[in-house]
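Inputs:
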Amino acid sequence: MFWIFVRHPGKSGRKSTFQSCIHSAMSRSLRMMIGLTGCIAVGVAATLAAGPANRPTISVIRDQRDRPAAFEATGLSTARLKEIAKRNDADAWAEIFSMHVIDEPAVPDQPAIVGTYSVDGSSLRFTPRYALRPGMRYRAVLHLRPLVDLPDGDSTEEIALTVAVPEAVAGRATEVTQVYPSAEVLPENQLRFYIHFSAPMAQGEAYEHLRLVNSDGMNIDQPFLELSEELWDRTGRRLTLLIDPGRIKREVKPRLDAGPVLAAGREYTLVIERGWRDAMGQALKGDFKKRFRAGPPVDAAIEPAEWKVDLPAAGSREPLRIKLPRPLDHALLERTIAVADEGGKMIGGRITVGDEERRWEFRPEGLWSSGRHQIVIDTTLEDLAGNRIGHPFEVDEVGPIRKTLEAEMLRIPFEVLAPPAKRLRQAGF
Amino acid sequence: MSRLLSSVLCASLTLCIAAGTALAVAAPAGLDKTGKPDLKSAGQLAFGPEGVLFVGDAQGAAIFAIGVERASGGKPAAEFKIEGIDAKLAALLGTKASDIRINDLAVQPGSATVYLSVARGRGPDAEPVIATVGPSGKLALLSLDNVHYAKVSLTNVPGPDEKDQRGNSRRLESITDLHFVDGRLFVAGLSNEEFASKLRAIEFPFSGPDPGAGVEIYHGAHGQFETRAPVRTFVPFNIGGEPHLLAAYTCTPLVTVPVSELKAGAKLKGTTVAELGNMNRPLDIISYQKEGRTYLLLANSNRGVMKISTDNIEQQQGITEPVKGGGTAGLHYDTLANLKGVEHLDKLGNDYALLLVRTGNGLNLEGVPLP
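Outputs:
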């Protein structure tokens, strides 16, 4: 066999990776002389000739953040590439140059990664349609025969290159920041929980990581409404978890068969398990437990007439405060109550819900003007059991049933007065 | 062997060959936009008029109508089965199976092409993907870079202030199911806040941004209590020649609702035609004909697949007495215990059902003869 070391100047100092070897059986010095001459000769030849003498290579193209973004095969036949390009057949490219996920275990009949091909002279580039994933390995394979003239005796059919994308730097572990309702005693016909997380969570595995445990330490069987379309907010940081309404609603089959989920007087723990992954694939910081006791059911409609309202003084930024006789739904309290002026125009400000969802406060951006205002309530407001204003969760059909939806907004007028001292001065005291 | 390159390729010799479908020559009626739809998520799928695929986008609070290649016939292979479709789709998308979610599937009527809605990634910013599976089992991605499409926004139920006090609302509606019937798109939704069951009927072609008030669906439990009842899944169904929707509530009964009564602002109670039993989560439902009779095939979480007879469904007055002791009432059904782990199903031609089945090793897509 003949060893020849081929190095050609190439572009930008790029090196060829291909070496073919000639080994002579002659004496050492003669071998060296012939070798050296051969080297020079072939080196010259390689410089003069284009194309076929350049061995194909695959390299990784990185983006500005040094992440692998594409694979490029170089040293191919320009003419062959043009010919294949004319066919305008994406599948033809994929048969020649393709990229694959390296998976454990291997996927039988694994499809190649979808992406786009572009040709530049003697180079063929493949750019995957979607960004490569941290922590994964990928393999690019170039099948040589359609693209290059291989020297006789060379049986290399393909060249491959593997690239590993580094793991993403692990950030702070995500954790549960709050569960609503905040109270420790919840009605036995409690309808829903809101679970708040410090960062976006992976969607689609919620129910595997949620348990409701009774005071004997036993898991309650299927207490939640399990939906394939989980109820996340837009940020992916809040999950709405419903207790199976079929077991809350009286006289409905699941409740008749399996009984209610919660029973007044008993203690429970809602367990949110650590194994639940966040959107980056990391487990939570730890288990989160909300312990509570079930109290009597709440079946009455919400009565705004029972609310106590502390009115602010004109010219101040004091909060308008509503004190509620029983807790209402946290998310709905934040969204369904607002303040308007006499003409119905909304006033900008900040809402705070506190005291275990029994207090609603509104602090205006500007100063309160004196005069008539309105508290505007969207009647989708619910309490913890789903009862609404004028409309309990379960409506007894013995009474008259409305045939159409009621008005959406309830308006409660109130008046903002000047503070007493000012009034006294104005009165001439 | 790595090197930094500028992202601009040499112009004159560069050819770009993109994988994906070319823009259809003529846009189907109702698809008034061209380009790339701003899809934020791809959830429930439904086929509409020929060449139109509806995609529910809960994250973007919208529904898209997307132009796809018209059906060109094609019969499914008798033993159509793709094992590990989740791993294969993930490979196509350059990731692993645990990084994707298959949200829904729909078979294009008049063809054996299956469309799948997929999320690449698991968080709120997961990329929405529509994939196709041809009759021979070939997987491809539907390119959405340049398509004919239309969009309708699902207006959030407004609080008293149109933008809430913090400038954005956390309220989102999950779209639990979607079907096109006689020129209207029916959308079942469930809010992530108030407990409400909205069934919207949206005219297609879409006219204007607001689809109008929906219908509140109620459940009458055995004559005494009436409650709001979210719909998990439904299927269009004719009873006595009249179009109805046959729906599975989240609190489990199967009900029928006449389409003619689905007018904006109405409050409707479904007629209960079956109580399907305990600890039962209906996931998906289709109707089909066999030997002159109409049946329903219902996939549910615990009991495998149920084949439900609809004989005399029009005689069902509604189950008004409580059904106790774990039993069932109403329409007769058989449980096909051999079909376990079915998460989605659709009709595949007239003789087959297409199932997405979860096994210990992932998800399989398979065709089975309609039972």
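Remarks. Chain B has one helix and 30 strands. Residues 1-22, 161-167 of chain B have pLDDT under 50 and may be disordered.
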